[in-house]
Amino acid sequence: MSLWTSEAAAKATGGKVTSAWECTGVSIDTRTIEPGDLFVALTAARDGHEFVAQALEKGAAAALVSRVPEGMSPDAPLLIVDDVLEGLEALGRAGRARTNARVLAVTGSVGKTSTKEMLRAILEGQGKTHASVASYNNHWGVPLTLARMPEDSEFAVIEIGMNHPGEISPLAKMARPHVALVTTVAAVHLEAFENVAGIAQEKAAVFDGLETGGIAIVNADIETADVLRSHANSLSAQIQDFGETAQDWKLLSVTLKGNVTVARASHGGDFALFKVQSAGRHFAMNGLGALAAAEALGADLALSVTALGRWMPFVGRGARETIYLDPVETERTLELIDEAYNANPTSLGAALEVLAAAETTDGVGRIGKGRRIAFVGDMKELGPQEIDMHAELADHPAMADIDTVHCVGPLMQHLHTALPEEKQGLWAATSADIVRDVRRLVDAGDVVMIKGSLSMALAKVVDAIRKLGHPAPQSKNEDV
Question: Where does the Mur ligase N-terminal catalytic domain start and stop, copy by copy (predicted)?
Fold first, then answer.
């Protein structure tokens, strides 16, 4: 099915086409391009114009460019615009304008990608749903997502992120959501903001794009909730809140049972019991926000709860797996919690809570006692207080139930120093340094959690632990 014709794309961008074409997708990366895609020659680390020929050789329908690449055939299918990024933005705005989809924008310091994926799972069973891929949430990711949206979409979930002030508002205005959700506000990217209140102001800018009569979904439990409410009120948006202190979607209880989170909430005088196929109080909060946002979009709550119960986190974002360490003695296993994708004080604290609540197994390993073990890497972009923020994790309440903490990176050396001696594991400058010792650091019966900023490459530690044995086959969790 055609996504864009050359005529429609030229009209949207004000560009010039060299020949007629139709595309079925939009891509910015020749490594993952599919036949029929429109290749967008963005300039980042490399100039995308250098890859146009390769994209066309791989079957791209056409390329969005600002000039004809050197050596290109005169009849090559091109859409020529003044600026490629501006052309992509125009295509995104046109993609949004031509659909009747109910659109939701998601942002937040922590949990926005997981919540976006929860919403994708919830809405897919209730209508044709389009959503951001991976964490495509920045100045090119949002217009790319909108440009990829099929005209007949019924729901759309657009993730919006930021690193600096002023980024969210123009992206929100491009997405024009009917509902906008802020998962939480925390100390992330503090090097670019004066304080957390400044971060809250930036997150609140997601409401700037709300359509008339739009609904703002606010986490009631955060200290800066009033900042979000105030901005939403200034725009005459409807406001719904969620959380333990909320009026609209009130979280009543959270129970962690094995690898499942079971939560109970009230809304409008009714009660809802929902579950998520991964343990963690933060998953209950994200799930509740997702249910609130989905109902605000017009989704059926009962169907939403059922779909949410089947959702599981992705690799690097809290996925859990059992690793068999012995092919014969099948009781010799450890549990791996993969949080290696990213980290900040809030999300790392949540991951420590999950680890602290995990059940270990005694009597199956060489040590005899199952342990709760954390491998943690530096948290980046925290600003002038970064050393204190790392060291203060030693006082997190969850640390009382964690046996050993291995630290990776110069900033995590401050946590290592602050930990009680009996909890101090190894400190290493890089993930590669600690990988060499993984075999002796973990044992059957252990539960091992790994988390750090993406640049710390703690995925190498995850891979090293997986290679100690083999993962268990995927199976459904027990009903609870």
Answer: 24-69
